Amino acid sequence: MSDMVVVRQAGLYCVPGQFYIDPWRPVERAVITHAHGDHARHGHRHYLAAAAGVDILKARLGDIHIDGLEYGATVVHNGVTISLHPAGHVLGSAQVRMECQGEVWVASGDYKVEPDGTCAPFEPVRCHTFITESTFGLPVYRWQPQQTIFDDINQWWRKNAAEGRASVVQCYAFGKAQRILSGLDAGIGPIICHGAVEPLNRVYRAAGVALPPTVMVGDVDKPAIGRSIVIAPPSAAGSPWVKRFGDYSDAFASGWMQLRGARRRRGVDRGFVLSDHADWPGLMTAIRATEAPRVIVTHGSIPILVRWLQQNGLQASGFDTEYGDDEAEEGHA
Predict the structure, then answer these.
(1) Which of 158, 181, 179 is nearest to 116 (CA)?
(2) Do 217 and 284 reside in the same domain of the chain?
(3) Minimum mean pLDDT among 213-217, 287-291, 323-327: which range?
(4) Together in a domain, 246 and 282
(5) I need a surface site. Which of 128, 141, 151, 250 has the fewest CB within 10 A?
(6) Do 158 and 130 belong together in one domain?
């Protein structure tokens, strides 16, 4: 059988199934791995996604024709059996398993292997060919346990609150914001969320994810602002909205913060290294667990990871995609 998935102008295309995975141009049928903007776009006629991600996709894309598939359930389309499996990236994120004539391919979408309380944990899926992301596909990227980062954030917030200074954390509004919220010590002070973050919090809570109470800035009286932590997207930096917090301390939360230069470019007081993507050991763990003899690498450090996999006896190559264009910019990594 020739390749089950190829790259076309509109995106990754399942040839026998006649559908696309996370296409970047409008298509008839799209299977969506998760609701970040570089993977879930407007304009497709029919969307298929994990049931847990349907409400997030609707919140972000509006009125779309979408079917939700429970994790592990199957649907057959043009002779290809499709199932979706947890990717551990954000709420509703999924890997796409495709089986046709006994051959199995899995497209990972974005994933991380460390479990967190805001989404179903990553489940490796055995296959013949694994299409993996490589956002942090360099050996320099190695994450600390997330609880260590949560402790650091709470300690920083506690110190600022004692000095009467608000703590502003810049992070991606979908996924990263809710993960940080899940690790905050609400006893320190009020938790204020930007208008881009709060609607997504509501979707997470409706899905049964436990988040601490959050408020909008207008709900907090002036004296309490100095004890607050503020969760806002990177676009809020320097805006009139953020100036309402006066003499605040700021931080940026992203995997990119592991590199000192990235922290300097952001011009923030603190960089917290917290990513919703797998680090180098995580990528190795996930790839090994699939037992796939063939690996195709997308978005990120493609040549380095491909070379490493080839040196370790795997048939490896890369796909050129349009994913990740906004990642470093928006901080959702």
Answers:
(1) 179
(2) no
(3) 323-327
(4) no
(5) 151
(6) no
**CA gap 173, 155 in Å, rounded:** 22
What is residue 8's three-state secondary structure?
A: strand
Rg of the Cα atoms in the chain: 20
116 and 206 within one domain: no
pLDDT (mean) for 285-296: 98
- What sign does the dihedral 140-252-57-20 (CA atoms) show? negative
Helix axes 198-206, 54-61, angle to 10 degrees: 160
Domain that holds residue 176: 146-272
β-strands 249-253, 270-272 pairing? parallel
Q: What percent of the chain has pLDDT over 70?
A: 97
Mean pLDDT of 315-323: 88
Rounded Cα gap, residues 229 and 247, in angstroms: 13
Q: Are the C-beta atoms of residues 213 and 189 closer than 8 Å to each other?
A: no
